[in-house]
Structures are given as C-alpha cells and as structure tokens.
Design a protein that fits this description.
seven-stranded parallel sheet, three-stranded mixed sheet, alpha/beta, about 35% helix
C-alpha cells in the first residue's frame, strides 16, 4: 500500500513512516524539505500518484490566530483537491482531544475549520484525536511562563508518548475509513499544574509553577475535563516514568 504522510519528516510523521515501512508498505515522507508543499501545492500531485492513503500530521509553523487558520484551511483544501484527482481512498488527519471544546483559542478554531473541510469533502476519512504528547509538555510550560513563574490550571490531562501516537495512526491508516473520529490517550491522568512541576523538577529548572484556575491554555480557559477524552479512548501503553527514563 502506498501511504503518503504529510509532515512525514516531523516528530510523529517520521515515526509513522518508519512503522509503515517496517510493515512492508510504501511510505512517502512528504514535507517542504522533500519537495512537497501543501500551502503552495508544489510537488503535491506528483507525491500522490498511486497513493491509496494520505495521513496528515502537519502543523502550522505559527500559532498566531490568522496565520494558523490560513495554514490549515489552505493546506487542507489543496490536499483534499489533489487527493480527489489522484483517487485517494482514505484521508487520515491527526487532531487534538478537546478541540471542539476550545473555540476561544485561535489554534483550535483553525483545527475545527480543518476538520469541517475534511468531513465535507468527497474523500473517505478518519479523524484521530490525540491527547497532548509527553514531548510537548515543555511547550505547554513555556507558553504559560511569565518571567520565572509558570501559571497552570489544576485540570486533568492525559498525555501520551509520540511512539504511541504513531502506532495508533498506523492502525487507523491501514484500516477502513471511519468517516468520523477516534480518540487516543495515554494510560495515566495527571493534573496539569502537577505535571508542569514534575517536568521542571526533572530538568532542575528553577521556574515556579503557580496554580491558577484562570490560566489560559493557548488562549482558552480550561474546564476540569477539557483536555481528556469524555468517552472511550484507545490507550497507549507508555507511562510517564517509562518515557522519562528513556
């Protein structure tokens, strides 16, 4: 099976390409660095020749509201149009658990727009909503930092390892389209502020985490369960201690 991975040279994409190749699939890592640009359309038609499945794990280089919306709308429109011409039978897109509950955030509004484009297209699809990655906890902490203080809400979070995200995407990509959403998450739940403290302590980082119920999360106010699955989710196997030990 020929599977084109958009964002195939990034954290998740590169792991997915390796897993697909190990199973004997023809995996194509598509990114601007390999000559495929979904924003301009450069190299897109050529990359999709013979493709049965496209997995989009790309992300915007900017989280500014207008820029991220432009990225996801333009790249998704270009990609879906090219897939229709190429006869792609399954479009898989990686998104985030809680996206629909975070419309205050420009980033998540853009992800909502992306998902609407996918659901309204003629290409059969599967949306994979993942909780945040262990690898992204540092980014969360940095975004919440003001000087030497990190303000985080005392809400639930259920992060997972990038390896487990890639493994779940593999299962979805080689399966039949769901024309809907599946959710994946880590095996453990934490409190966001406590997770931030553990992250900083593990790196001897002197920043101080202050619990703040009003602390924004990429521009949005969090409720208790915004960042965790509300129903059944497929769980990864990697626990925080195991991931940290790596």
């Amino acid at each position: 099976m020929r599977v084109v991975v958009i964002g195939g040279t990034g954290l998740i994409g590169s792991k997915l390409v390796a897993l697909l190749s190990a199973q004997g699939h023809q995996a194509v890592a598509a990114s601007p660095g390999t000559g495929v640009n979904t924003l301009t359309g450069e190299g897109l038609a050529e990359a999709l020749v013979g493709a049965e499945v496209v997995v989009d794990v790309s992300n915007s280089p900017s989280f500014e509201a207008a820029a991220v919306l432009e990225f996801f709308e333009t790249s998704t429109r270009n990609l879906l149009a090219a897939e229709a011409v190429a006869g792609v039978r399954h479009h898989v897109a990686l998104s985030v658990v809680g996206t629909e509950r975070l419309p205050e955030s420009g980033y998540f509004r853009a992800k909502i727009a992306q998902e609407k484009l996918i659901a309204s297209s003629a290409v059969p699809y599967s949306l994979v909503h993942a909780t945040q990655f262990f690898e992204f906890v540092g980014g969360i902490v940095d975004s919440a930092t003001d000087g030497s203080t990190v303000r985080l809400a005392h809400v639930l979070i259920q992060p997972m390892a990038a390896d487990d995200v890639a493994a779940a995407l593999l299962d979805v990509a080689v399966g039949a389209p769901t024309n809907g959403r599946v959710e994946i998450a880590g095996p453990e739940r934490f409190r966001l502020d406590d997770l931030g403290r553990r992250f900083l302590a593990g790196r001897d980082d002197p920043r101080d985490v202050v619990t703040d119920p009003a602390a924004p999360y990429f521009g949005a106010r969090l409720q208790e369960d915004t960042l965790v699955p509300l129903g059944d989710a497929a769980l990864g196997s990697t626990r925080l201690e195991e991931w940290t030990a790596r």
